[in-house]
Each structure stands twice: as C-alpha cells, then as structure tokens.
Specification:
Immunoglobulin-like, about 725 residues, mainly beta, 8 domains, about 5% helix
C-alpha cells in the first residue's frame, strides 16, 4: 500500500469519527470530505532514494585458478604450459619464480595480465618423461601481493604410440579361416566417433597376401579388420602397421609387423566320441569341419564299418553348413564296435588345400540291458547299516521305469540316485538292524533305448545287529548340580552286557583345566592319575537285541541322599565299547550369574535354596587358557565387578566362587536358552571405538597416478560421536 493511499484512509476515518459529535444539534450539517487531489497537493514531495555504492573488497594474495595440463593429463609436444591466476600478475616476478625440472628452455607469453603461457622450445621436451612445474612464492600480483604457498604439479610428456596387442598373435598357427584381424594400440589413435562416421579415419593395416574386407575403429585405440571372405587355409599372412602413424602428438616410431598361419582343413568335432561306449544304436555319426569343405570329396571318402569283420554300413548323408551327418539305414547292432574312417584328400571349399592325414576312430554300441552285479550280493548277511544298495546294469537305464519297477520288502521310503552314465542305480533307506530285506526288479524296467530288462532281479540280504553303544545323557561335558537334591546319572545303552561307572573327586585346578578354551575338554589329553577315585560300580544292561534302554544310577550307586558339595568326574564305559565317556560336574549350593563386556565381568552369587544373595564369597576369574586373571569378593548384595582379561570377545572366561555353601563355578559360554538368538534378537558382537568415512578425489585413475584421499574419524561412544584427541596416530592400509 502506498503512502498516498494510507493518507486517504486516514482522512476518511477522521470524517467518520467526526459524525457523532453533531448528533446533539437540531440540524445536522454535512462535513466536507477532502478530495484526494487536495490531500496530495498539500503533502511535501518525497526525498529521492540514494543509489547504492559498491564497497571494494580488500586485496588478497593471488591464487592459481587453473593449470594446463591438468592432473593426469599429458603434455603434448608444441603445446604451452598454461597458468591462469585470479588477478593481474607482475609478469617479471612470475617468470622469475617459474621453474621446470628437469630444466627446459622455452618462451614466456602473456595473452592477458592474469594468464601465463610457457612454450618449450622445439625438441626441448623428452617423450614419455615426467616434469615438475613449480611457481615459487616470489610470484606477485600487480598489487604487490605474493603467493601464500608454492604451486607445484607434475606432468608427463606424451609418449610414443605403440602396438600393445594383436590378434591373431605373433607367429600364431592353426588360426580359423573366419578370423578377424585386431590390433590394439597403447593410446588413442583416432578421435571418438560413431561407426558410421569413420570415412576420414586412417586404415593402419597392410595385409599380404592382399585381403578384401572392411576395417573399423571399435574405440579410439582398437582397430578391427573383418575379411570379406574366409582366409585361405594353410596360408601365412603378414600384417604391417607402418611407422609414422600419429595422433595428439603421439607417433608410432617404427613399423610393426607380424605373421600368422591359417590352419588347413580338419575335423574339429566328431560324434560319437572316439572310444565311446554305451552308444545309442540309433545314433547319427557327425563330422564337423573347421571350415567350408568340398562336399563331394568328403562324402565319397567317408567309410563306416563293423570293427570285427569290416562289414560296411550303408546310410544317408546330410550336410548343414560345415557339418556332415551320417545316419545308418538300420539300427546298429547292440554291443558291437564300429569304425569311422575319413581318408586323407578331402579338399576345402576353395579347392586349394586338402586334409593331409587319415581320420579314424571307433565307438561301441550299448549291449542289451541285464544285471551285471549288486552290492550287497544276493544272500549276504551282516550287511552294514550305513551303506546303500548298488545295482549295476550293462546298459544305461531309464530312471522312471526302473525305479517304478523296483520293490523293497519290508516297505521302506527309498531315495534313489544314478551314477555311471545311468548304469549304476544306488538306493538308500534307513536300514534297520538284524532285518532281512528282499529287493525285486521286474521286467518293466527298460533301458534308455526302450529295451526291457532281460530277466527280473530278486535280491535277498540280512543286516547286522546294531553296534554296541552307550551315551551318557547330559546337557554337556561339564555340569552344575544342586546340593539340595539327589544326583542321578542316566545312560542310554544298546547291545552291551553291563555299564561300568567310576566317580572321582577333582580339585579346583583340574576343573579350571577342563573349562579352559571354551569348556569343551579334550578328554584324550586329560589324565586321571592325580584324581581321587571315590567309588566304582557296574549296572546290569541286559536288554533285548537292538533295543535301546536307559539305565539310571544314583551317584554314587548306594547313596542315600544328596552328594556333598564338591567337584566330581564321572567315567562311564562298557566291555563291548572302545573308550569311555566322561562328565565333570560341580555339586553346589550356589547359583552364579555372569555377565561380561570387553572390560568388565559382573558376578552375582545367590543361595540356591533361598534365592538370597551370598555376601563375602571369594571369586577368582580365569582367562581362556586357564590362567588366573582377577579376583574379588561379593558385597552384601552378592555382587562383584571384576576386570576382564585382554582377550578376544569369543574367548570364554571361568569364575570360581567359594563360600560357606561350598564351591560354585560358571563359564561365560554357558548360554543355552538365554542367548540373544534364543529370543530372535539381532546381535553385533564387534565393539567399535571409532567410526570412519573415507573418499578419494575421483573415481577412476590411470596407472602411475597419485590417489588423494580424505577421511573423517570420530570416537563412537554408543552412538555419541566426538573428535579424537589431536595427534592420534591413524594407520591406513591399501589392500589390492
């Protein structure tokens, strides 16, 4: 809203406020309302707005805006080194501060007061050499201000153009006639253009003998020549790239020349394969050539005969491209060997070169299907319970009809699979001990070529009894048991005459030795020579053959109540079983809870009977290798905090507690039922003290270029980030 409009509204408002003042008179006189023109005429003219003025910035030290060549860019011969500053410069001081190492003579030019060109003299630069360009701090602007810091960068002079790779390779032999000729240079030779815009680009190849075809640059440094027709078999070609080829200052110094030889015609593939057996009697004989052939010269030479008597096999010949197929008029005899011969002399399609050697190979057709062998054999006894039934046939069998024709009694759930080109049928199932099995295979089983099995199969065998075994039924190798209840041992046994048991008393040191390295003892290294044997006894294990039974015994056998608190070892064995099973356990009135971090261990000791805290319990913490690593005593709440040893997070610790209620033990990896994964909770055990983010100055580099990087490092305290202390050493590793 303009100032004039506001004045109009004010005048109208004043007039409206004046109306009530005349309400008490008998005659109301109208109040004149001033016109807009009258109001504006009486107001003073506004002051003109002053034009804004620019405040000059204080002079600053000169800065380099751009340098040519840029980092990673080559310096071309005949091109200047260009330095562009952000302000006019004192030319004399800049030229005096300019250095190039190794020294290069040249001329300074100033297109404008802020841009310096240094043009090296002709032949002053060495190809493929690296130069260091420096502008020292003596360089000043026209205002007399010097550079804040020295300018330094490196540049490599454009090198020579070279042929880095060719195809076919140098002196390569046996090259296919339809090959393309490819030459790859070490740097761009032509500008980047489309395939249809290459009319003016050079064709660098000279081929002898001459070859018609088309060449194209697939990129700036790769040239591909495609012959119009297949190259001549048995011919050696020489390819030449003349010296003097150049682009962007890079020049091919010397002529590059190489040769390769095209292979003469030969058979590249034949089926059936040489010496192949179990061949389909209806198979076609196929010969694939590596190049076009004169078909009549091949067809009239091909011979297929029986190996035993030389009887020729007649059939039909068909060609498809470079592949000849022969199909016999009648199916080949089963279980018979055949020879295929192509004598030398078949010529290529060009008629210039012939196959130099005879081609001869043999194959054998599959015999009629019949049983060759089985494992177990018919009538076998004492068959292992963990094997599979193997049936070997003389010919490849049809899986569907064969498995369908197979029956096993008593009925089982079969898992069949095949091996040996489908001549071996393996059948697995859960074999039961001391069980007679009958396997039958009817004539409904057929081979892959439709022929039925010559005669049905019946196979009978009996499995052996179950192996004698005992299993001490515990939750693990080391256990904790309450001193308030009877301690019982349960042993599962099969086919043993008795169970021998022995109870030993262990020392705290022996218990620690068993709990070290994760609490899974290597019983073969544990010696009972120093243990105190308390009792030995045997349990009668009489039971039906192959019947699994569980025997339960009090510890010791004739105990009339709970065991005394202490550390014990139970050994269990049987005469029919090699070795023994062991179980170490602690009988205690204490319950110990242990929680650990990387630095501390929290121990809480309570009374198993009352659940009350146990104060003044002496604690000893042992590291992963069983060495004492800390000690302490519980407070009135049964709590104690101990320092953790310096070890890996996955390495366990053991804590022993001694009090008036006896001795208790806990190992940090006793986590069954209380682990995070028992509650489907995600866990990351890696403790990270730092968080880092790193990036480089660009995404791609050429060999030999310098990679500049920047990294941010923060201390991570449970999601709260802070700067590390100044001077903190950081190790960076580059891994290839």
């Amino acid at each position: 809203m303009s100032g004039w409009s506001r004045l109009v509204y004010v005048a109208v408002l004043v007039a409206m406020l004046a109306l009530p003042l005349g309400c008490g008179r008998s005659e109301a006189l109208p109040t004149p309302i001033p016109r807009l023109a009258q109001i504006t005429r009486d107001l003073p003219s506004p002051e003109p707005t002053a034009e804004p003025s620019a405040t000059p910035a204080p002079p600053h030290a000169p800065r380099l805006l751009e340098a040519t060549p840029a980092p990673g860019q080559e310096l071309s011969l005949g091109e200047p080194i260009v330095l562009s500053f952000d302000q006019p410069m004192d030319s004399e001081s800049v030229e005096g501060a300019f250095e190039i190492s190794p020294n290069v003579e040249g001329t300074f030019q100033w297109p404008d007061s802020a841009t310096l060109h240094f043009l090296p003299h002709e032949d002053a630069l060495v190809r493929d050499a690296e130069y260091r360009i420096t502008v020292k701090t003596g360089a000043r602007s026209l205002q007399g201000l010097a550079l804040n810091r020295e300018i330094t960068f490196r540049s490599r002079v454009v090198g020579y153009l070279e042929v880095s790779d060719v195809f076919p390779g140098v002196d390569a032999a046996g090259i296919a006639p339809d090959t393309r000729i490819i030459v790859t240079f070490n740097r761009p030779v032509v500008p980047l253009t489309g395939i249809d815009d290459q009319a003016g680009l050079p064709s660098p190849l000279e081929i002898s003998p001459a070859v018609l075809g088309k060449g194209e640059w697939t990129n700036t440094s790769v040239y591909v020549f495609t012959p119009q027709e297949a190259l001549s078999p048995g011919t050696t070609y020489t390819v030449r790239v003349a010296g003097g080829l150049s682009f962007a200052g890079a020049e091919l110094a010397d002529t590059f020349e190489w040769s390769f030889t095209i292979q003469p015609p030969s058979v590249s593939l034949e089926t059936p394969l040489p010496d192949q057996i179990l061949v389909d009697p209806n198979t076609a004989i196929v010969l694939a050539f590596d190049q076009g052939m004169d078909r009549s010269s091949v067809s009239e030479r091909l011979q297929v005969t029986r190996s035993d008597n030389g009887t020729p096999i007649t059939g039909r010949l068909d060609w498809l491209a470079n592949t000849l197929t022969f199909l016999a008029e009648e199916p080949l005899e089963r279980g018979t060997a055949y020879d295929v011969r192509l004598p030398a002399g078949s010529v290529s399609a060009s008629g210039q070169v012939a196959i130099e050697e005879d081609r001869l190979w043999s194959f054998t057709t599959a015999p009629m299907p019949e049983l060759v062998s089985s494992n177990p054999r018919d009538g076998a006894e004492g068959v292992d319970l963990y094997g599979s039934l193997q049936i070997v046939f003389s010919a490849p069998m049809d899986p569907e009809t064969t498995v369908k024709a197979l029956e096993i009694s008593p009925a089982v759930r079969m898992y069949p699979y095949w091996q040996g080109d489908q001549t071996e049928l393996w059948v697995s199932w859960s074999l039961q001990p001391s069980t007679p099995y009958t396997v039958t295979l009817s004539e409904e089983a057929r081979d892959l070529f439709g022929e039925p099995l010559a005669e049905p199969l019946t196979l009978r065998f009996v499995t052996r009894p179950a192996s004698p075994s005992i299993d001490l039924l515990t939750e693990g190798p080391i256990g904790i048991y309450s001193a308030l209840a009877d301690t019982l041992a349960s042993v599962r046994h099969i086919n043993v005459s008795r169970i021998d048991m022995a109870l030993y008393e262990l020392t705290p040191a022996q218990l620690v030795m068993l709990t070290r390295e994760g609490g899974w003892p290597d019983w073969s290294r544990f010696s009972l020579s120093g243990a105190n044997r308390l009792a030995t006894w045997s349990l009668d294990a009489e039971a039906p053959l192959n019947s699994a039974q569980v025997a339960v015994s009090a510890l010791p056998q004739n105990a009339s109540g709970p065991m005394e608190p202490g550390i014990y070892l139970l050994r269990v064995g049987a005469p029919e079983v090699d070795g023994s099973q062991f179980h170490a356990f602690v009988v205690t009135g204490l319950n110990i809870m242990l929680k650990t971090t990387d630095e501390q261990a929290l121990v809480w000791v309570t009374d198993l009977q009352s659940g009350e805290p146990v104060p003044n319990a002496d604690l000893t913490l042992y590291d992963y290798y069983g060495e004492p690593a800390g000690s302490g005593r519980t407070d009135r709440d049964g709590l104690a905090m101990l320092d953790m040893p310096d070890q890996e997070r996955w390495e366990s610790v053991t804590v022993l507690a001694e009090s008036r209620l006896g001795l208790g033990a806990v190992v940090s990896n006793w986590t069954d039922g209380v682990s995070p994964w028992d509650y489907q909770l995600p866990v990351n055990w890696e403790a990270r003290s730092f968080r880092a983010h790193l990036f480089t100055d660009r995404q791609i580099y050429r060999p030999g270029q310098t990679v500049y990087y920047k990294a941010f490092l923060r201390l991570d305290d449970d999601g709260e980030y802070s700067l590390p202390e100044m001077g903190t050493p950081v190790q960076a590793s580059l891994i290839d």
